[in-house]
Amino acid sequence: MKEDYYWYWVNNIAGISNMKLRTLFNAFDTPEQIYKASDKLLNSVSGIKEKDVSAIIESRNNEYIYRGYNDLERMKIKFTYPGKNDYPEQLMNIYDYPYILYYKGRLPQANVPAIAIVGARNCTEYGRTIADMLAKCFADMGIQVISGMALGIDAAAQRGAVNKGGYSLAVLGCGVDVCYPRSNIDLYTQLQNAGGIMSEYPPGTPPRAGQFPMRNRIISGIADALIVVEARQKSGSLITADQALEQNRDVYVVPGRIGDSLSEGCLKLIKEGAQMITSPMDVCATESINRYLNKNIKQCDFPNDLNDAGIFEGNLKKSGLASPKNMVYSQINLFPVSLETIVNNSRISLVEAEGILLELELDGLIEEVSKNYYIRKHI
Predict the structure, then answer these.
(1) Which N-terminal stretch is annotated as signal sequence (predicted)?
(2) What is the CATH number of domain 105-306?
(3) CATH architecture of 310-376
(4) What is the pTM of this model?
């Protein structure tokens, strides 16, 4: 307990960043040594300024820190740190690893591979569906899913994993007791029970823009591989991909359409050498995942290739539909398709097409996402 408190204390000193902690740990072996160090010894540490020394000294009698430490148990929040047996080993191999991790729920299993799935907040239905399907398949395979609980791709992947009975961890850019975005409160609750929620920021820390790029290094660092589903030219997903590459992690990209802004980041990564993923089994190119699956052979009902799923072409045999209903349904995929396009391509009358589209909606097979634009609800 004493060691736990020293770690909590050193990570909650005002003005002492992760970088300054690294400087301190280059001079001292443990937080307890820092706590007990003399003013003179602290001042002798290169890179530690006089104001930092003052902050360290003042914090030793800071009732706020002690009270916060005692409140963790009441809030059902745990924490871990380098050297503790539950600290994720993967993170020890990255630059700027966090010196404390607060969490709710469970941490990832060390002997089970994990895949991070990230992408655009304002994603397409196509991207959301692919993220969901990949995560469900990984759950079937026993692979853990890591993401940031953001709107769009992140949330779709994590919901897919937990809904399939798998494990998923959300790494937040705020305190673990803060649900952000608030609209994901259902997922936040699910993850506490069926997975985990993690942050390097103390409880109560509000979401701030600068904190999210920092948390991205943890998302990629704790995973064996990263999958980018949809991403713009300048996005947090590309930052995460860059960090993954720096951490020597494999990066996979779901290919998108040329000219689509949500595909620009993905196509850029592919041009730079990232691996395309068209099947969940493509992640077997990552050695640690391949080894795990060879020892734990699991089946997945995800199609062998995304094209086989009827994403780009109608999978008419699976639908069991008859012409001309067949002809209309075959024109609709996970990208919005206009009524005009459906009529022109299926070569049936407008009135007949409208009737069939209504029938398909009632069957729950398609959805009108905006006036006269339709998408497929199932692959």
Answers:
(1) none
(2) 3.40.50.450
(3) Orthogonal Bundle (1.10)
(4) 0.81
The token pair at 88 is 């994720």
Beta-bridged to residue 169, according to DSSP, are 146, 196
Task: Evaluate whether 331 touches 314 at the Cβ level (below 8 Å).
Answer: yes
Determine whether 50 is exposed, middle or buried from the number of CB atoms within 10 Å of its CB (0-12, 13-18, 19+): exposed
The SS3 assignment for 143 reads: coil
CA distance 161 to 147: 11
Residue 376 CA to residue 365 CA, distance in Å, equals 6
Identity at 236, one-letter amino acid code: G
pLDDT along the chain (379 residues), means of 10: 92 94 96 95 95 95 90 95 96 94 97 97 92 94 96 97 97 97 97 96 94 95 97 92 95 90 92 91 92 73 49 41 76 81 86 90 85 78
Q: How far is Cα of residue 109 from the mean position of the Cα atoms in its chain?
A: 16
Give the residue carrying structure tokens 């609800």: 377
Sequential DSSP letters for 298-322: ----S-SSGGGGTSSS--HHHHT--
- Checking DSSP bridges between strand 101-105 and strand 114-118, what pairing results, if any? unpaired
